[in-house]
Amino acid sequence: VYDLASQQLIASGQVIFIDATGAQLTTPSLELSGDFKTATIQQLRLQLNQQATLTASQAHKAVNVVTLSDARYTACPVDAATDSALPWYLQADAIVYNADTEDLTY
Predict the structure, then answer these.
(1) In terms of CB atoms within 10 Å, which end of the chain has fewer, N or C?
(2) Residue 87 pairs with which residues in a beta bridge?
(3) What is the helix (H) or strand (E) element at residue 83, kind and residue range?
(4) Which residue has the higher pLDDT, 34 or 81?
(5) What is the DSSP string of 5-48?
(6) Terminal C-alpha separation, the chain
(7) Quick check: pTM over 0.85?
(8) pLDDT tens digits for 68-80?
(9) Is the pLDDT of residue 50 over 60?
């Protein structure tokens, strides 16, 4: 749904976005500004390739800074039903990526 008053795109349900590389983002909730400069995504799952997966309880993008909360990354094959049984994963309370400076902090 595009809200003309707030100039926001709001999507809920099983939202799926697939980019040109085949990376697939799924989320139950997405809010995106009309100019695409800011966004908030809840409970995201980003399948980067055949195996690598990034999950976060929330992602927020403000212009060129992306913040992931309660993030987890693994290169192991992931079955959504067994995330907690992964052989290994990297986890951070917060990950901040600044596209302007190319800094990644966690």
Answers:
(1) N
(2) none
(3) none
(4) 34
(5) TTTEEEEEEEEEEE-TT--EEEEEEEEEETTSSEEEEEEEEEE-
(6) 33
(7) no
(8) 999 998 888 776 6
(9) yes
